[in-house]
Amino acid sequence: MIRNEICRAVEAAALEAQRKGLLPDAALPEITVEHPPESHGDFACAFALKFARTARRSPMDIARTVIAVMQDIPEVEKVEVAAPGFINFTLKGAWLAEQVDQILQQGESFGNLDLGEGVKVQLEFVSVNPTGPLHVGHGRGAILGNTLANVLRAAGYFVEKEYYVNDAGAQMEAFYSSLYVRYQQCFGMDAEVPEEGYHGDYLVDLAGQIAEEKGDVFLRMSLDKAVAEIGVLGLDKIIEGIRGDLGRLGVVFDVWFSEKMLYTGGQYESAMNLIREKGYVVEKEGAVWFVSSEMGEDKDNVLIRSNGTPTYFASDVAYHYNKFVQRKFDRVINIWGADHQGHVPRMKAVMRALDLDPDRLQIIITQMVTLKRGDIEIKISKRAGDIITLSDLVDEVGADACRFFFLSRSLDSQMDFDLELAKKQSADNPVYYVQYAHARIASILRLAQEKGIGFQDGDVSLLVSDPELAYIRKMLEFPEIVEIVSDRLEPHHLTYYAQDLATAFHSFYKQCRVISEDPKLTAARLKLIQSARLVFARTLHLMGMNAPDRM
RNA sequence: GCGCCUGUAGCUCAGUGGAUAGAGCGCAGCCCUGCGGAGGCUGAGGUCGUGGGUUCGAGACCCACCAGGCGUGCCA
Fold first, then answer.
1. CA A238 – C1' B58 distance (Å)?
2. How confident is the model over A157-178, as pLDDT tens digits?
3. Nearest nucleotide (CA of A88 to C1')
4. Nearest nucleotide (C1') to the CA of residue A435?
5. Residue nearest to nucleotide B19 (CA to C1')
6. What is the largest CA-CA distance in chain A?
7. Residue A196, nucleotide of least CA–C1' distance
8. Which nucleotide is closest to A438, CA to C1'?
9. Is residue A386 scored above 80 in pLDDT?
């Protein structure tokens, strides 16, 4: 990237100045460049400001000294020093124009980076208990995880997307019994869902389906057997439902990992034995504990309850043992909701207990989504029964708008999802603004094709006007966005970039007619449009969105 | 009580120590005899929660406080 080239040039110049004795021989600060406010060029470096203190020289003086010995950068038109000590770089228009050909040549690989160097990353997300349909809050994690996977792959990582199916434990038992009760009710029996069970209407529907398909067979067997068998059926249907809901949003997993397998596959024993041998396991108060307090945690955590059943936490120890030790992922990213935030330090302690570098496990916490209809907040709880499912949301708002909306806020911000507002705004939703730009481009390209205008030999050096170059500059930010999103794991930058890109395009479109009386300029601009289409498509596709040719 | 997250324009939100703090929506205007007006352009609108501190420089970093959300040893 040109950006890195400028950093290297500044660094080389600073070292050269030191070698010549023009600057003090002190350690240089980290050299970075950023995009300055407009009218200050394309890139700005604040190196001189940062170095002023250690160098005991004025920033302006340092900046002037550095640029005096700096080698020419072929892509750069001019280098200037500006108060209070910035070094500003302006790119050559001709070089910018050439980038259109470069982008076209790179095609779908434009923006791909090799930051990942093939590092094996597992991205685990959603992983909702299969006790009911996904609700609105789960959509955020789903879209986020899927988008991060897309971006990390573009950045050169090997990424596997995984859904951890919590198909073991007490929650599932409650689900199975609740389902059986609903099934009994289908046959007019006087049974009641236990208080700690699942009361949602979806279980009534599910039980009804099963009753219809299987008749009353489960009434003619022992209670234990009936609950177990109807449970398996119900679980499968719920998982299929979840898979379908995610599919509507284009979220597809590579692996569906069963919690039960940790117990039947011996991984639970292996992991427990390992941490027991290392002395991190004690028995007290009738339960088995992980002594995380010895690792700087403020409290210990129960692995096996006094009734003999393992906790979710124990499963997670085994699960992460499996991820790192058995499946040998270099890096694991888990996306959890804010309600699991207290679990993070425990898992970091587990990493240390397993002799693994805690930094290899990254846990992204997304803040809560609250759902509203106007001013009325809707409580989201499966057990309470009053839920707006993710599927309902997609029905009302549309898949692309859901994706864009979920991505458009930083992970750390809570989010009010107002259904009325989302619907009312849908015509002015930024998603349409961005997609419209793509459709507009497609329309122009269609017209060119109808008119039989070829532009393979278009000369991009004819692209010299401000709106043209401004748009090219914006396209060239795309690889930077891929880098930022993959480094910081912050997909929301994509939505802002997409809007900026659309603004730059619409502005260009207003000022520059593409298909005109001038055949050479027409060909050059058609090339620009072609590259523009590519960058829009790349950006939208990273977000899992459609890039429509018509709207 | 303690831990994590948040507080920036009327509203929803960007801004990981640098230049005059930005965008969308809303508001006040302007622009259609040209490729898609789901568009372009201009303007009004800010004690960046409060108070200290660090720094040449703080919306950003540190401390305290205020407000909201989430969590806090046998739920997940």
1. 51
2. 999 999 999 998 888 989 999 9
3. B19
4. B38
5. A37
6. 94
7. B75
8. B36
9. no
Over range A396-423, report the average pLDDT: 88
| Strand B reaches within 7 A of the A201 CB | no
Spanning CA of A44 to C1' of B18, the rounded length in angstroms is 10
Nearest to A8 by CA among A73, A55, A54: A73
Where do the domains of chain A lie?
A: 2-91, 96-115+429-542, 170-248, 265-366, 369-427
Q: From the alpha carbon of A302, which nucleotide's C1' atom is closest?
A: B74
**Protein CB footprint (7 Å) on chain B nucleotides:** 3-7, 12-16, 18-20, 22-26, 34-41, 55-57, 68-76
State the nucleotide closest to A439 in CA–C1' terms: B36
Report how far residue A128's alpha carbon sits from residue A131's, in angstroms, rounded to the nearest whole number.
8
Across the strands, what pairs with A364? A335
> Under the phi-then-psi rule, with left for phi > 0, alpha for psi from -120 to 50, and beta for the rest, what region is A282?
beta
**Confidence tier at A379 by pLDDT (50, 70, 90):** low
Q: Is A105 exposed, middle or buried (0-12, 13-18, 19+ CB in 10 A)?
A: exposed
Residues 135-174 of A with CB under 7 A from strand B: 166, 169-171
Dist. CA A417–CA A460, nearest whole Å: 45
**Which residue carries 């690889």 as its tokens?**
A479
pLDDT confidence of residue A422:
75
> What is the pLDDT, as a whole number, of residue A423?
76
A440 touches strand B (CB under 7 A): yes
pLDDT per position as a tens digit, A300-334: 999 999 999 999 999 999 999 999 999 999 999 99
pLDDT band of A388, cuts 50, 70, 90? confident
Fold assignment, A96-115+429-542: Isoleucyl-tRNA Synthetase; Domain 1 (1.10.730)
**Kind plus residue range of the DSSP H or E element containing A62:** helix A59-69
In whole angstroms, what is the distance from residue A269 CA to residue A539 CA? Answer: 45
- For chain A, give the mean pLDDT: 92
Q: Write the CATH number of the domain with boundaries A2-91.
A: 3.30.1360.70
Task: Determine whether the distance from the CB of A90 to the nearest atom of strand B is below 7 Å.
Answer: no
Alpha-carbon span A134 to A305, nearest angstrom: 29
Confidence grade of residue A195 (pLDDT, cut at 50, 70, 90): confident
Within residues 319-348 of protein chain A, the ones with CB less than 7 A from nucleic strand B are 338-343
- Residue bearing tokens 């550095």: A66
Is A265-366 CATH 3.40.50.620? yes
pLDDT at A381: 53
Residue at shortest CA–C1' distance from B6 = A413
Token pair, residue A392, equals: 């309902």
CA A538 / C1′ B70 distance in Å: 35
